[in-house]
């Protein structure tokens, strides 16, 4: 077994195994079914080609277990109502941002980069080094060949200019209008003369 997969199971599966077993007890008919579901979950995780693509391990583990239980239910002819009700407990909220939130964040980031691009050159270099690259004041001064006081002054200037640009443009200005907004329709005219 690959040590990377073993490490993934140790870090991301084992800490949640007790909680998973508790939830599986509510939907499985016997302790052996719980054990089988846990073992099948591990097996399916081992079969994943690239676990680095799993960004939210806990929901992934619980969703895998839920799919296994659903497969078992589909195979069985009779399913208790209680099992179906408890099946919802295996659902763990996905903490990944929604696609619209990702798009919004990208638009917002593009807008901020546009504001930074409008700063004077030295101010832009200092601001980028400090805020985008996370450099300390000393690192920024050393890298750009400036004194600490100049870096501090340029940062203050950058913050002031950014605030002024935001106040002038407004935060809502960064959002593109919805399609069709602002389009005025031509006035209706009649062919009939008064």
UniProtKB/TrEMBL annotation:
It comes from the Bacteria. Residues 115-161 form the RNA polymerase sigma factor 70 region 4 type domain. Residues 16-76 form the RNA polymerase sigma-70 region domain. The keyword Transcription regulation applies. Pfam families: Sigma70_r2 (PF04542), Sigma70_r4_2 (PF08281). InterPro entries: RNA_pol_sigma-70-like, RNA_pol_sigma-70_dom, RNA_pol_sigma70_r2, RNA_pol_sigma70_r4_t2, RNA_pol_sigma_r2, RNA_pol_sigma_r3/r4-like, WH-like_DNA-bd_sf. One of its GO terms (molecular function) is DNA binding. SUPFAM superfamilies: Sigma2 domain of RNA polymerase sigma factors, Sigma3 and sigma4 domains of RNA polymerase sigma factors. GO terms for biological process: DNA-templated transcription initiation. Keywords: Sigma factor, Transcription, Transcription regulation. Residues 171-194 are annotated as: Disordered. PANTHER family: RNA POLYMERASE ECF-TYPE SIGMA FACTO, RNA POLYMERASE SIGMA FACTOR FECI-RELATED. Belongs to the sigma-70 factor family. ECF subfamily. This is Sigma-70 family RNA polymerase sigma factor.
């Amino acid at each position: 077994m690959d040590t990377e997969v073993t490490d993934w199971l140790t870090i991301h599966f084992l800490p949640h195994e007790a909680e998973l077993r508790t939830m599986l007890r509510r939907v499985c008919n016997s302790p052996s079914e719980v054990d089988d579901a846990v073992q099948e979950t591990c097996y399916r995780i081992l079969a994943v080609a690239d676990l680095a693509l799993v960004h939210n391990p806990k929901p992934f583990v619980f969703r895998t277990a839920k799919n296994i239980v659903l497969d078992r239910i589909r195979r069985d002819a009779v399913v208790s109502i209680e099992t179906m009700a408890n099946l919802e407990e295996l659902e763990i909220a996905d903490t990944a941002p929604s696609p619209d939130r990702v798009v919004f964040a990208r638009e917002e980031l593009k807008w901020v980069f546009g504001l930074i691009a409008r700063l004077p050159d030295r101010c832009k270099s200092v601001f980028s080094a400090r805020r985008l690259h996370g450099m300390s004041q000393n690192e920024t001064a050393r890298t750009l060949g400036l004194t600490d006081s100049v870096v501090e002054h340029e940062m203050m200037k950058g913050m002031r200019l950014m605030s002024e640009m935001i106040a002038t443009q407004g935060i809502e200005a960064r959002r593109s209008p919805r399609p069709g907004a602002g389009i005025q329709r031509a006035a209706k005219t009649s062919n009939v003369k008064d």
